[in-house]
Specification:
The chain is mostly helical. It contains 4 helices and 2 strands. The chain has 2 domains: about 55 residues; about 35 residues. A two-stranded antiparallel ribbon has the order 1-2. It is elongated.
């Protein structure tokens, strides 16, 4: 349930299971963040994940780690060359 106040601030009431409540308490102890700060941080991370996936999906997230396999045009050229070589081998063999 989201409630609105006169000043424009929003308040959020959330019912947690016992496991979720323990998780929040454990995160509070580990990080020192308040419940509000934990929820805000989780919302920001969730939002960033969705924005990143909307910008190109998992490929865009890991493109820098793919090396030469990250360039689709290079992959296409390698595949075409391999197919051409196989076809030539069949014709001559």
């Amino acid at each position: 349930m989201v409630q609105f106040s006169i000043m424009g601030a929003q308040f959020l009431t959330v019912r947690l299971t016992e496991a979720e409540s323990k998780l929040v308490e454990r995160l509070h102890v580990q990080t020192g963040l308040t419940k509000s700060a934990l929820v805000k941080q989780a919302l920001n991370r969730l939002s960033a994940t969705h924005e990143a996936s909307a910008d190109g999906g998992l490929f865009a997230l890991g493109a820098a780690r793919f090396g030469r396999h990250g360039d689709a045009t290079r992959q296409s050229a390698q595949i075409k060359r391999a197919v051409r070589e196989r076809l030539n081998a069949k014709r001559t063999g």
